[in-house]
Amino acid sequence: MAGRTDANYPRKLAQRWVGIMVAALLALYAGLALTASTGKGVSFDEGEELAVGYDIWLHHDFRMEGANGDFVKRWATLPFLISRPAFPAADNPSWSLAQPYALGFRFLFQDGNNPAALLLQGRAMMVLLGIATGLLVFYCSREIFGQIGGLFSLTLFVFSPDMLAYGGIVSTEMSICLAMLGSTWCIWRLLHRVTWGRLLASLGFLALLFLAKATSLVIFPITAVLVVVKLFSKRPLEWNLGRSRMIYSRFAQAGVFCALFAMHGLWCWACLWAHYDFRYAASPDTANPAIQAWVRTPKDSIDPAVQTFLSWSRHTHLFAEGYLDGIERLLTDNDARTSFRDGQWAVGGSRAFFPYTIWAKTSPILFVFLVFGLGWWCVRRRTSLAAETGSGPIPAGGFSSSFYDVIPYVTLAVVFLAVAISQNLNIAHRHILPAYLALDILAGGAVGFVWAWRKRWMAVGAGLLLLWYGCDALAIYPNYLAYFSPVVGGPSQGYKRLVDSSLDWGMDLPGLKNWLGQHNPGNRELLYLGYFGTDSPDYYGITSTRLPSYPAWETRGVYDLNPGIYAISATIFESVYAEARGPWNKVFESNYQNALKNLRVFNLTGKDPVQRAELLKKYPLKAWLAEYDSFATLRFARLCAWLRHHHPPDDNIAHAILIFRLNRAELDAALYGPPAELTDTPLWNQT
Question: In whole angstroms, what is the distance from residue 639 CA to residue 655 CA?
Fold first, then answer.
């Protein structure tokens, strides 16, 4: 699996220049990722990631958010052990009742800390993970395609909007990318040559993977495919632990692989227990009844066999309670989620979701380079056939050898995508990012294809395509999450294609504040805000009437919708997580009209205390407030449905917060005119 040196491949660059170019590319990546995030607010998960991670360091508390993995929480909060920010007191309900998102909000905004400083510390640690991932991409590609191929793959990584976006956000994505690619690479190398270095590297990456997130379980089918390929390839296994020897028998190789599998399993099991302090209980103080564990409120059922295993694991203490809680939460919170794709809603998602996100969120240039890489294999095949017939030179490695070398990355991409497509958690493009690392590596073959043709115009064309690819990333800076392919209309049409963290992760309140300063100085116009996220509008001094939002932390009073500025997060605008979610329908319309009629009756009694008292005897004030809350939710959903059909955004904040300026006529049409859309049944009855 050494770099190619035959006549059909570029000569090696001087090692010094390669090192300089790798360092320059990674430095550019770090600068782009970190500076892009400095002007952004808190993403949806960052508050809880930082607070829970710091809580683990301070209190060894493992009750909260195990489903999102703990490695990144510990890693991102390492600087806090030096800066020592204030942490909510033990008697605060957000901590004692194990409410991670409320805990994160208090930690950032209510305990006297500097949110920007805390975010910068955590995000800088994430950039380091991104640098390590990019370096690994370079090494993996260089093994197959040589130094120029490695630089090419690294360039694709550095200018990937996805890798730049999540490289500057405290989330599990970069840790999963690094650990999944590293584990796949190490396992493949270990299946061919067992040395102490390869064994230790494999154990290290696999332990990191299992601490990163429950997604780590995908490594099992990946490993199974790699083992089968290796056994059927008839290639020997080189054993270099102690006395060196070559193992040719498939049966003997299978025995070695079983022993290695057992060793890795025991090692990862021990590392998990070490992370949880070799303690079963998730609570730091089981004797204190005020410290409550995470309350399991499953929305989905679990396969009976899986549930039996989880129950047995709890009974035998096979795994720590915090780890089992994370697995169970992941399994019980998928099917009830609503996904949105290209103007369509679905409960529990659809098999077309991730293929569509790849189409919508991937630069067409990457697809072109992948086709070039396939062309390289065809060239290698033609060269090999010519050598076999004696009509051409014998290459350093034939087609089969070349394809064999890329098998781990083909397997990573195919298996990871297949598992993702088979699941019901269809909310975000970020859940398939490890597959993109494999695609970046495979695209490195484009260099060999271009070089093999020896055509100047092809080299110039490939260079221009790579330049275009880089310019795309620079053009969308600093709003990398908002990248959408031109084949689906680009970023300006992104809110019609995908939402949630594929576009809108609640990070753009600082941008909204800046926009208001320019376009609404002195709050001359009323501002209505429908916000998706866990950041704090109050922290930025955004004065607004709060529309139904998600999460619905704040109690809203009774208010009218008047002409003014309506700033609505794209996820809220598409009614993905609202109580009245999905398209407007006949059930919503009937409930809305009934609530509107009832509230008009209530308002008519406002000038007659006797009539109002009689009405309240029949229907208490609590019932009227509940009726109004339901009405406000339906009213906002009806407004969004009307806007989707009749009023394009007047402006946007990073393509994630949509700005509408509405007058009285437009509001009356939206709220009291014919519905803009009207399906027969609610979303949950359509699936």
Answer: 20
